[in-house]
Amino acid sequence: MAGLMIFDHDQINVQKGIVEFNGFEKLKQEALQLSEQIQQVEVTDENIQSSKKLLAAVNKRVKEMEDRRISIKKEMLEPYNEFERQVKEIVNIVKDADNLVREQVRGLEERERMEKREKIKEIFDKRIKQYTFSEVFTSDHFITPKHLNKSISLKSVESEMVDWLEKKDSDLKVINTFENKHDVLMEYIDTKDLSVAINIVNDREAWKKQISTKVPDDKREKKEIFLISISDEKDFKLLEMFMMQNKIQFNLEKVAK
Q: Which candidate, 68, 76, 72, 70, places its Cα nearest to that of 17?
């Protein structure tokens, strides 16, 4: 590719930094002697102030040494930090271009997948017309992400489609022989697996039977209605008076002769 960035290791010149601590051994021995002396001192009310001054003086010298160490570290890292910034700047430039190209590639691949889905749908819609279950299944039930890959040809997808349709036709003929075919069919449409659909329906029926044995029947008391026929008005008046006195509920209905 014209203008391709070429990285040469020789483009980067590295010179190892050197830090010489010539007084290390001498200072180390002095520090050990000082530490030993401090540990042997027993702090009392008489020497507490002098002990504090001694520690303050020691800590001051230690701080001076630490400050120098930090300063040298910054000086040593300064060339590297600048180099790191330069490298990151170049990397970000390339990454921005890379992301742009990747986005375009993803968009192109997605369009190709959508176009292939439409072609598979057209083939499916033509082939399913030969079967009685064209209203039950659609291309969405058949198409999987695998079918949309470039590595899978339309010819192989169509061959798999024929097997799929034949299997569905065979399964639906079996389902049509069941007494609970509607229940099995609903599960089959969802699972697309006959044995799984049958097991789901059977398990549900077994569960219903198990529950029904544990739930008591709702046996409500049936009320009986008695009809009394009286033709004499005097007898009727006596019966009516008896019913009212004993607070017996009744309905009165006169029937003309």
A: 76
